[in-house]
Amino acid sequence: MRPGILVKDGLVVGAGILIGNVTGFFRVGVTAYLLGTHARADALAVALGPIDNLNQAIINTMLVSFVPMLMLRPESDRALVFARAARVFAWILAALSLSAAVLASPIVSLLGPGLAPDQHREAVTLMRLASPASLLAGGSALFGALLYTERRFFVPALYQACLNGCTIIAALTLWKWIGVEGFALGYVAGAALQCTLAWATSRDILRRGRLQRRSATLQVPLREILSSPGMFLAYAGLLAANIMVTRAFATHAGPGMAAAFDYCLRCVSVVVAYLVYPVANSLIPEIARLRGAGKTREAYRLLDNSIGMMAIASVLACALGVFLRTPVISLLFERGSFTAESTRLVSGVFLGFAPGIIGWALLDLISRCLFALDRPRLPVFAALIPLGVNLTAMLAFGRVKDPTWLSLGASAGLMTAFAVLFLAIHLRRPLNAPEIPEPRYEEDGEQIDHPVHVSEPAP
Length: 459
Description:
Number of domains: 1
Order of helices and strands: HHHHHHHHHHHHHHH
Distance between the termini: 30 Å
Strand content: under 5%
Radius of gyration: 22 Å
Structural class: mainly alpha
Shape: globular
Largest sheet: none
Number of helices: 15
């Protein structure tokens, strides 16, 4: 693959992320203006935070695991594979949305144990209103994966822009009538808009696939559809649990602390998105292609080069964040209900989370590429580490009053997980594996030459 194509694809993804993050800062600014770091902001963070984490995990699962699954199939079979997978995932996504609505009260009790009764009830209502967004976000991710197979990245990258834009409009227009519930309704409307755009853009691929397909009787095993996405969902869920543990402990630290952590998380996630997504989203289809062609060593060389660039960029981003955090937070959010005390809280939380930028970016980049290389167990094992380290730290600290200490456990866990995963892929890499010829298919889609797969050591 020519480096220019990779750079071009990265710029396209980066443009989508830029639009999403610009609207994202306006969304957080609206939240800060209307709610600040008061108790109602805690309720919104506890309610929408888990839904947002789940949706991001679903979207990343589809793009990281479903794209390679489609790329390894002949083009004429992709529509059939997509149709089979879409039916399966539609039921799963609908069950997730329904579960979030039905079980909202115990979920809020688990993830926001320190909320007052009024805020608990408000968080339950918000979670139920936002629950359909998971089904819609998953649908847009399915169509986005199909677009990725033809290197059409822009529409999938608009997810955050649609979400943030609709949330801003609904929150501002409905604030006088329904208050904070406008945020949840706008969130669902944004997910619906993105799903519609992704479906409309991918219709030509589905139509062409139906016309070109070689056999209408191609059977895709259910295990094949669920195994790789299931592993990545476990990985993404464990990383999200690391965040939710900190948010849950923050509700015990005093009013406004959970909201302060959520504002900090928005800032950190913007930096990580800029670092990871343009590189990883353009790398995944190429690494999947190299894996399908048996060029494993070339894929690892590409990964190593990307890790080096990411390490430099993430260290610089961390340093700039530490030095500029207070004036930037004040400039972005300090107006309306967001006071100077709110700036102090968010700045303190950010200081503790800043080293996590390095660990999170490098861990996520390596993990996504390993999934494209069909080595999912290493990332899932590594994702257990942040959760374990964070839980240990939070239990050891007890009720944290200093905002800087609140996120140190999450940050230390991410750094540790990256170090373990980096050592694992270099110590256990199959450097001497022979190149494997790309498989060929008969007219009915059956594979006629089965290359010998070189087994890799288990983690």
